[in-house]
Design goal:
alpha/beta; Rossmann fold; 4 strands; about 40% helix; globular; monoacylglycerol lipase activity; AB_hydrolase_fold; phosphatidylcholine lysophospholipase activity
Length: about 150
């Protein structure tokens, strides 16, 4: 049987963090839906934090607290140690995690992988209205995933 990790949004950070740890478990593929580079960069870019970023202490109370708890979910570092196929999915109209963070993580992973064909980013046009939460509703998604995994 195959082991596939699929993380969405915050779960992409959890998945990458877990996979970067030595476990002895062979993971066959990873799918990251609406991924980000790390929590600090996400918090600095996601629209919901815009109002809070202007207040003194935002970095200290929020971002530094995450750092002290080692909760940065540094996917931009963790993808560098992956070797299994990595598929990233991101909607152009994602209002929670900006597409630019998905692109940045993709470029980091692509640079780290020896076999560039193992890393793929699929973006979904704004006209589909998938936003942050509805990529899984796209009827084409099963075929896209099967194609990436070479499942007939």
């Amino acid at each position: 049987s195959s082991i596939l990790f699929w993380g969405h949004s915050m779960g992409t950070g959890h998945a990458c963090s877990h996979l970067a740890l030595p476990s002895g478990v062979q993971v066959d593929a990873v799918i990251l839906e609406s991924p980000y580079t790390d929590i600090r960069e996400a918090a600095a870019n996601i629209p919901i934090t815009k109002i809070y970023r202007q207040f003194p202490g935002f970095e200290y109370f929020i971002l530094d607290s995450l750092a002290l708890s080692d909760m940065f979910f540094r996917s931009n570092e963790n993808v560098k140690v992956l070797a299994c196929p990595l598929l990233m999915l991101h909607a152009e109209d994602d209002a929670v995690v900006p597409l630019q963070l998905g692109h940045k993580l993709f470029e980091t992973a692509r640079s780290a992988y020896k076999d560039k064909t193992k890393v793929k980013l699929i973006t979904f046009p704004e006209k589909l209205g998938l936003g942050h939460d509805y990529i899984s509703f796209n009827p084409e998604l099963p075929a896209l995933v099967k194609d990436f995994l070479n499942i007939k």
